[in-house]
Structure formats: C-alpha cells, structure tokens
DNA sequence: AGCCATGCACCG
DNA sequence: CGGTGCATGGCT
C-alpha cells in the first residue's frame, strides 16, 4: 500500500517570489494529511522532521509543521512542509513543476519531481488551484 | 483555503 | 553580513 501524493509548486513554494522560506502548504484534507504523521492539536505549532530519499538515494530532511496559533490567540490554522530549499534549488525546481511524495510499505518515504510544461497564466498572473493530488492511496 | 510577504533570530 | 528558516500576518 504505497501512498503517494503530489503538488504542483507555486512561485512562492520555490522561492521565486522572494519569500525567504521555501516550503509548501499542506491542505487539511484527510487523504493528504494521512500521508504525514499526526501532529498534536493541543500544542502550539507542533513540528516533526521527516526524512525523504530521492532517486539517487540521497536523504533530505523536511519539516512538517502545524501552525495552529489560531487556537492560541493568533490567526493561523494550517499545515506546512518547510525546509525544502536545498531540494528545490538542488534540482532547479520552478513553479509549475510537480513534487511527488511517496510512502512505501515499511514506512520509508521518498521524494521525486516531474518537470512541467507551461503553467496556466491568466491576466499576467499565475492562477493555480491547490495543486495537490492524491496519486495513490 | 491557498498563496504571498516579512521582521527577526541564528549561523557560517 | 548574507542566506535560511521560524512564526506570523496579509491579500485574494
């Protein structure tokens, strides 16, 4: 039961917009969240480091964080996968490219990507949906 | 809901 | 001092 999900990168995800944080937003969809370990909701901003292996066998460390300060006086309530700068830059990923995450039987996680064709541009602005897909459950 | 942006801390 | 990541708020 390999569980695979993917996301089409946004400009902000890759750092192209100047945001000094490369990382992607994870939708609160049970199928997607099910891919990641469960983070405690009673703690503020719980995080967990995850290791992913790429095609060459190299290991990458990403951080899965639940920014939930909404329940602690703030305004946030969202999940993010950060610390992806080395992987993004190392592979020269750009907006529109697809990041693929897989969890294999036994618990091993792997990352891959698929280079994209031209992203959808409308009125000079990039319009994307959430970009997330469930490849296999 | 999802993407964009930023002040500040930390580190080489 | 420049790059990176944290945490947080803003905009659409």
UniProtKB/TrEMBL annotation:
Pfam families listed in its UniProt record: EcoRII-N (PF09217)
SUPFAM superfamilies xrefs: DNA-binding pseudobarrel domain
Restriction endonuclease type II EcoRII N-terminal domain location: 6-84
Region spans: Disordered: 1-20
Name assigned to this protein: Restriction endonuclease type II EcoRII N-terminal domain-containing protein
Species assigned in the record: Sphingomonas edaphi
